D-3-phosphoglycerate dehydrogenase
Amino acid sequence: MFKILVSDPISDLGIQQLTEASDVTVDKKTGLSEDELIAIIGEYDGLLVRSQTTVTEKIIEAGSNLKVIGRAGVGVDNINLEAATKRGVVVINAPDGNTITTCEHAFAMMMALARHIPQAYAKTINGVWDKKSFLGVELRGKTLGVLGMGRIGSEVAKRAKAFGMNILAFDPFLTADRAEKLEVTLASVDDIVKGADFITVHTPLTPQTRHMISRPQFEVMKKGMRIVNCARGGVIDEMALVEAIDAGIVAGAAFDVFEKEPPQADHPFLSHPKIIVTPHLGASTVEAQENVAIDVSEQVLHILRNEPFINAVNIPPVAPSVMNKLQPYFTLGEKLGSFASQITNGAINEIHVEFAGDLSDVDTQPLNRYIVKGVLSRHFGGDVNIVNSMHLAKTREVNVVVTKASKTKGFTNLITVKIIAEGGEERLVAGTLLQGYGERIVQLGKFPVDIAPEGNQILISHNDKPGIIGNVGTLLGQNDVNIASMQVGRTVIGGEAIMLLTVDKEVPDDVLVKLAALAEINTAKEVVLQ
């Protein structure tokens, strides 16, 4: 018989499948202090919380029988993940339970924005009957740009279609086939910025998405367009948005999220007549709160019964013998995936991973997750981890193929990551662990190289002609970019070649543009490996 403690207020309906299970006993004890939890947690196999309980290292250490901690929601900031992982306790959340709720809130914000509902309400209840100031616009026939076509963005697009809107959709994993299934038009961010009447944001906050809409984008937008953000604060440059509204470019905005929450009292969003704000209510419905509890309860049962489960946010237990062999490769695998992803242009269709040498006779499933996490982290940021990476790949229809080979091309071990993107684009990165040297990238596409996968790097594709290396070095020096190391790869003299530079700092976008414009250079991309 399994025992589960529910330490935060959760509806009976949300945990009904736990209370009705024949092999489970559920105790609800809310409002407990850390000491009180420590005193009793040793009795329980599972702990179910929302946001009120802080699950500290001491509580986890005291949970001698603890196998799973369930968070009825998305964020797990109140759970010590490192301590849970060390103890082999699986931590799960419920990322899908608030999909419809957040989608509906975004759509409600868009409708309120189109018809000035909050502003008209405020005037009316204050005794001012003012119809002339609130001339709205219809949604029908307008073009909606959806930035991010994951679960929530896809649901917003469905509802917009029902309102007669035309949908331009961007997502780094959105292929033409999937766009056709969703009945949306595949577009770039630039296409959406220039062509949309409304823009709604549904992306994680990553270095690539931070301020993805800022002054340069506002300068080319349709005059009178409108923006909704119910995703993450920081995706849209807040101060640049205020400037665009005041300049008459943007007709209005509706935000449920802020770069800093709660916002300062003098934040311009809070007093601007053309901006609607709500206090991060995207997931705040009765149904969502019940759904996340139901989802977590189901996964808790799977874990306790030793059945397959999803939505874990830390690594599940792995046999020590397997872990000892794989662990040295975790960082290398993740970096190879990240490198391959950063040099890929199109929407990713497939991730091919090949293991050779020492890894050919090992169950590499934990390592596979690190590699896929590396590929996805460029677009998902902190929302992807080593347990949910395979699940996220599946939800975005990215096929993961793992093979093993006996030949290692002269290396004791070799990991090869190949990404196949839409249009047939292929990107291949291979790496190894060299005794005495550590992690090395040894192949990029068809070119052999030898470089450490770390820091800021510039990958340049060029024609093998005299003087190119000097021109690159001169340009970087003129822009205060110092070269730490350089590798050049070619297969034939005078043919296609690559140059891989490690530099001391982030390379400004305008410098990359200048590099790509040099004679005989085809492309120049920055790769950042943490």
About this structure: The first strand starts at residue 2 and ends at 6. The mean pLDDT is 92. The domain at 2-93+287-305 is CATH 3.40.50.720 (Rossmann fold).
